[in-house]
Amino acid sequence: MALGHIHKAQDVNLGNQPPVVYPGSIERVDFGEANDDKFFVLAEIKKGKTTYEFRKLQGRRFVDRSVKIETGEDLMEKVLAVLPPADQIKDSVFRLIVEYPRSLDAFLDEAAIRARCIETFDFHLLRRPHEEARLRLAADESIASLSPLKMLDLYWDTINQHPNESQALKELAATIIETAESGIPPEEN
To answer: Measured at the alpha carbon of residue 93, what is the angle toward residues 6 and 56, in degrees to the nearest 5?
Structure first.
C-alpha cells in the first residue's frame, strides 16, 4: 500500500507484508527538512508478495547560516564571512539569520548581502535586531503608577539618550500632554 502526505520516507509496517510505505516528498519544502534525505519508491506488486526499494534523490538543497554581532566594528565583514562560497549555495534555498544590536540597523548592507547570494534559487535574510538595554522598575513601582513624563525619562535613560536632547524632548512632550489633558490648543493658553 502506498500512502501520501507524510514528508519523511518510511515503511510503517516495518518490513512486514503488506508493506505500508510513505515515499515522502521528493523535495524539501522548508528548513525543518533541511537534513532529510529524499526518495522515490520502486515497487513490484505480486499477489501475496510486494517488494519495494527506496531510491535516493538529490533534491533541492537548503543551506542555513547565522551570525550574531555584538558590536558595530567590522559588522559587514563578519556577516559576509559566514556566507558560503557561491558554488556551495548555487541553486539552493539559502537562509541567513543576522542578530545584531538595533543601533546597527542602518549599517547592515542588505544589497551587498543579496549580491553575494545572487546564484541561490531562493534567498531569505532574517534580520533580528535586539535592544541593548531593558527598562527596569523598582520593586515598589508599576507602569500604571508612573506619569507619562516619568515613563519618557525612563525610556530615554534606557536608550542612552543624550541629556540635552532628552530635555528638549521632555519640554515638547510636556506641552503636548498639557494640551491633550486641557483640550486647549497651545496658542490659546
So the answer is: 45
Q: Are 186 and 175 in contact (CB under 8 A)?
A: yes
66 and 40, same domain (yes or no): no
Helix 163-182 / helix 148-158 crossing angle, nearest 10 deg: 160
State the Cα–Cα distance between residues 49 and 132, nearest whole angstrom: 65
What would the grid cell of residue 184 be? 486647549
Give the global pTM: 0.58
Answer whether residue 138 is part of any domain.
no
Residue 181 in 3-state DSSP?
helix
96 lies in which domain range?
62-130
pLDDT in tens, 81-114: 999 999 999 999 999 999 999 889 899 999 999 9
What's the structural domain count of the chain? 3
Show the DSSP H helices in 1-107 as ranges: 75-81, 86-89
